[in-house]
Amino acid sequence: MNSQSDFAERHVVVTGAAGGLGPAVVEALLAAGATCHLPLRAVGDAVRPDVRKDARIVSVASVDLTDETAVREFYASRPPLWASVHLAGGFRAAPILDTTLVDLHTQIEQNLTTAFLCCREAARNMRAGRAGGRIANVSSRAAAVPAGGAIAYTVAKAGVAALTEALADELRGDGILVNAVVPSIIDTPANRAAMPAADHARWPKPAEIAAALAWLLSPGNAVTSGALVPVYGRA
After folding, report:
1. pLDDT of residue 44
2. Residue from 65, 69, 55 nearest 17 by CA
3. 232 is catalytic
4. How far, in Å, CA of 179 to CA of 228, rounded?
5. Distance, CA of 181 to CA of 232 (rounded, Å)
6. Is pTM beyond 0.90 here?
7. Beta carbons of 117 and 64 less than 8 angstroms apart
8. Residue 215: phi, psi to the nearest 5?
């Protein structure tokens, strides 16, 4: 994944580009030659300033990924896509007795609804182009190995995993491969601040997860679909 020809002249949507993982994914795809389309709530520091000036970044502000109409209009206005990777999400930890129905709905909306809408509209765009494509989501180790303390988040990310596997089966005949990475706690500044006593060296780094996603999205991946790829770091 170090040749400019891997994604040359290929258009890729990256949601959640302003999050902890997003900048690393955008940078990996740019390095491989992609043009990156970023739906943002507002144009800000989604990636490093020097990278943000790259002409192959197309930022679109005021896109609410939980809004069906906004997502449909965003994808409909894109050129034929090669890939779409969905990093947008949210996290809230709480025991179940402290988890309200609003908390559950919020986690489902931030994690599962956004992935569902973006998967659907990406598939619509790719089917229209009739050239196949790649879709990637982000589930969580919390869903793959469920434990207490973050029930709403766990349920939402389990939904993302099921969405990925079901969609891979549905789109197989269209040549659209659908996969997800399954990270443990990602080594971001926000997570370090929240857990200062943890062994941060064991957490997967954003660049490491970005490399896995870039391969799943690449033309070099010709057969892998429906996979939930663990990226647990050194845990």
Report:
1. 60
2. 65
3. no
4. 6
5. 10
6. yes
7. no
8. -70, -45
Place of tokens 């908390």: 103
Residues ≥6 apart with Cβ < 8 Å to 122: 13, 75, 81, 84, 133, 135
Residue type present at position 137: N
Query: What's the residue count for the chain?
Result: 235
135, 187, 188, 190, 198 from 193: Cα distances, Å: 31, 10, 9, 5, 10
Which residue is listed with tokens 């009739």?
130
pLDDT at 66: 97
Give the integer Cα–Cα distance in Å for 38 and 33: 16
> What pLDDT score was predicted for residue 51?
55
- The segments of the chain whose pLDDT lies below 70 read 1-5, 43-53, 235
Q: In what order do the strands lie in the sheet with 83-86?
A: 57-60, 35-39, 11-15, 83-86, 133-138, 176-183, 228-231
The DSSP line for the chain is ---GGGSTT-EEEEE-TTSSSHHHHHHHHHHTT-EEEEE-SS-S-SS-HHHHT-TTEEEE-S--TT-HHHHHHHHHTSPSPSEEEE-------B-GGG--HHHHHHHIIIIIIHHHHHHHHHHHHHHHHTS-EEEEEE--HHHHS--TTBHHHHHHHHHHHHHHHHHHHHTGGGTEEEEEEEESS---HHHHHH-TTS-GGGSPPHHHHHHHHHHHHSTT--S--S-EEEE-TT-
d(CA 159, CA 170): 16
Please tell me which residue in 153, 159, 177, 231 is annotated as part of the active site: 153
pLDDT at 46: 53
Q: Report residue 222 as tokens.
A: 């010709």
